[in-house]
Amino acid sequence: MIGAVRKASRGLARDFGEVQALQVAKKGPADFVTAADLKVEQTLFEELQKLRPGYGFHGEERGLVEGSDKTHTWIADPIDGTTNFIHGMPHFAVSLALQREGQIVAGVTFNPILNELFWAEKGRGAFLNDTRIRCALRKQLDESLVATGIPWAGRPGHAQFLKELHTVGQRVAGVRRLGAATLDMAWTAAGRFDAYWERNLKPWDVAAGLILMSEAGGMTSAIDEGQSALSGSSICAANLDLHPVLLEKLRGA
Questions:
Q1: Phi and psi for 72 in degrees, rounded to 5?
Q2: By C-alpha distance, which of 106, 49, 51, 99 is closest to 72?
Q3: pLDDT tens across 173-198, in order?
Q4: CATH label of the domain that carries residue 65
Q5: Final residue before a domain boundary, out of 87, 112, 132
């Protein structure tokens, strides 16, 4: 997985340096797809097909491609933080997860500009490059730095977000919105953020983060009862002490 992600990311540093010349097309309101985005997913697809030809593939641009092996599916986000990427902000990532019989068992999230590779495998821990990572150990919301995502143009949920921000914001040390859900979860697993919440995401936004958080000693769940965290429809991630507290505040909002 790491090899496939690194190979798919090789051209991104060059493209990032020539960001003004990128071929950018509108995919939806304030949501962009670039030639680089499509190329990264194609490379991931081809490399993974060589490695495990029977596995399925679920990518942001390609959609779901079923394989002969129904128990395994790759879940890929070719460039998470595309808007950052095309604006020359070095905060984006290529993210890949492996789902086995409905469970995420391995994940990789790579920021090629900073050369930060977050990776985890079930039962073997979570790492940033070669260093083991753990969730932060803060137990109080008022000491915590929390990440979130703000709905942008064309996305639903503005009123709900403002309620949640009002409820959480006045109880924490700070709130950050950096624009890449995969990195928000990776940074929470690494202790840079103490917690993270967001709504209206997709499986490829959260899949790698679920195993990173679990192996780093954290907890993730959907915000709303009856939802699956892997769906991305709502996500709350934090250490074992903060998670129930933050979840209670979000549900109360």
A1: -130, 135
A2: 99
A3: 999 999 999 999 999 999 999 999 99
A4: 3.30.540.10
A5: 132
